[in-house]
Amino acid sequence: MNAVSTAYRHLIHGLAVIGAAILAGVLAGIVVDVSLRTVGLQPLQWYSALAEYSMLFATMLGGPWLVRVRGHVAVESLMLAMPPSLRLVSGKFAYALCILLSLLFVWYGGEKAISAFLSGEIDIRSIDMPRWVLYASFPLGFGLMAVEFLRYLLGFDSYYSGQAGASESL
Known about the structure:
The protein is mainly α. The protein contains five helices and two strands. 22% of the residues are buried.
């Protein structure tokens, strides 16, 4: 089981690195695009669409890692004001809700991806992109986020600072 856990952890970190590289590429592209406009040259017509697609993929690739390192927004003031037993129950409820919502996006994205694939839909902009590729990122990203929230629900760690297991090394 340790080898599976290690491989999974490397997968989550690897996807986050790819997402970060995509964001770095978007930043570099923005600098090039703005520089071209500033000096009066023709901007890259295709860059806007590429940047939009890239932001979607960076989000879906980095999302599971953000759950792992507690990088998503969480307002803990109410949780910290609760007694420990209620805090534990509230945390479990929040994890279960996050899993449910993540799985809803997995289902929705998967259904839309299959439908777009079967119909041959194309997202037509300055870059023609098969629409299923865009929707296929949802099951990957949200599926892994559901796994991360499942880790919290099963007690392997806690998303909230005042609970047991919150000190797991990253």
